[in-house]
Amino acid sequence: KIPSTALSASPLATQVAATFDQLGLSFDDRLGSDLTVFSPIDGSQLAALRMDTPGDVDAMVANARTAFAAWKLVPAPHRGELVRRYGAQVREHKEALSLLLSIENGKILTEARGEVQEVIDICEYAVGLSRQLFGLTIASERPEHRLTEYWHPMGVLGLISAFNFPAAVWAWGTTVALVCGDSAIWKPSEKTPLTALAFAGLLAKAADDYDLAPNHLVQVAIGDARCGTAIADHPDVAIVSATGSVRMGQDVAVRVAGRFGRSVLELGGNNAAIIAPSADLDLALRGAVFAATGTCGQRCTSLRRLIVHHSIRDAFVQRLTATFATLRIGSPLDDATHVGPLIDQIAFDGMQRALEQARREGGTVHGGERLDLTGAADGYYVRPAIVEMPQQSAIVCEETFAPILYVMGYGTLDEAIALQNGVSQGLSSSIFTNDVREAERFQSAQGSDCGIVNVNIGTSGAEIGGAFGGEKVTGGGRVSGSDSWKNYMRRATATVNYSASLPLAQGVKFDL
Ligand code: UN1
């Protein structure tokens, strides 16, 4: 058998082909010349693919509508059975999937394994949920009447995801939507289509083997922004879930709102940690370093701003810079590596531009330079940067998707909270303190205005059990656990009169 990527000679391309073989999948039917896929590890070519067009998306939506009509009639626990089988497949192939993810996205293997684990975990969560799609029974104001809320399948889910979590974010939405009775179309990032084809391919195979699953239950659109627009505009896509930049989210939100569709948005973050004088500084240091440099600063939840009490600021920054200097930067496939490459040159250029602007705004930059690694001339490896800022200037208020940590000082907790909340994004936040009053205030209505509020933990690495998302320009959507499943269903409020008379609500009299 000729491996799918025979045309590309790089060792990583060969590994990708071997991984697809191991998964029993192939992307031969996707080969083409529209989209070249590179590994950020060394810039080598992994594959060249054909892209779907907006017309292809229309055809997918039509298929997804048909699939939905059948799937919504399958009892929810039986829908859960499909997700259970899929989760078992992902668990069985965890190592191969992690390797593929690491090769295509560049995150270090332990984080790639963590992401695949998130997929496994959300599958198990969704299976349990398939028996817990509860509605309420509400006390009626009328005698012998009953008010009940039903949750019904909603329709077609269109899911647009980013390169940085190329599997987990899709799985959060899709597995939960599937148990809710929806069908799904996925437009992954053009930077990580192979990971998408692998994860969706295993799901498609599980669906093929499951007699209750209709054809086209889950489809993948490999394409550029035009495919995303086609999904956002299509009147038959009931729910559009989008993760990515604020600019993309704004476009999607307006399009979806214009046709009264439902959107679920998880957009930019500009996450801060407050380091209080009472904090366990060893813990704070470890928490800050992982949150700021994990996934090479390319998580939505990455720590971008550190707000440190004046009394400990200099000492803490010294420890931080010393620790940053010891980070091992290199191939994500090497177990000793802490920080892998940036996704591409565009990300690198954006990082350098941000550092220049920070300097102009009075910042002192430590690190941030490109590292030349043997055998990886076309990989963009950088030393994560710490930037001491005199105040929260314009560049600090922006999300730069790279490992840059801005450090600022504060005097009172009110000041720190004002800085933390003083940006347009509202995804994740944290405080390191051993003062229970500070910790409680930070979580209260006077505290952080973010969707994620952590105490003595960094800003990243949320568990799947909670609702994930944030406020303000982060978009307001919530995905993953808690009651996020309600996004994928529609609510029907039913009133039943089991009396022999017809009392009207609000005591209205209408005698005939
Ligand atoms: C994202 O970066 O879009 O909380 C998702 C975290 C991960 C998910 C991040 N569980 O960092």
TrEMBL record:
Q: Where is the active site?
A: E266
Family annotation (InterPro entries)? Ald_DH/histidinol_DH, Ald_DH_C, Ald_DH_CS_GLU, Ald_DH_N, Aldehyde_DH_dom, ALDH7A1-like
Is Oxidoreductase given among the entry's keywords? yes
Keywords assigned by UniProt? NAD, Oxidoreductase
The Aldehyde dehydrogenase domain is annotated at 34-491
Which molecular-function annotation in GO is an example for this chain? aldehyde dehydrogenase (NAD+) activity
Q: What is its EC number?
A: 1.2.1.3
Q: Which domain of life is it from?
A: Bacteria
Record field: transmembrane: none
Against Pfam families, the record matches this protein to:
Aldedh
Give the family this protein belongs to, as stated in its UniProt record: Belongs to the aldehyde dehydrogenase family.
Q: How does this polypeptide assemble, per the annotation?
A: Homotetramer.
Q: Which protein, by its recorded name, is this?
A: aldehyde dehydrogenase (NAD(+))
Q: Which organism is it from?
A: Sphingopyxis bauzanensis
Lineage at the top is: Bacteria, Pseudomonadati, Pseudomonadota, Alphaproteobacteria, Sphingomonadales
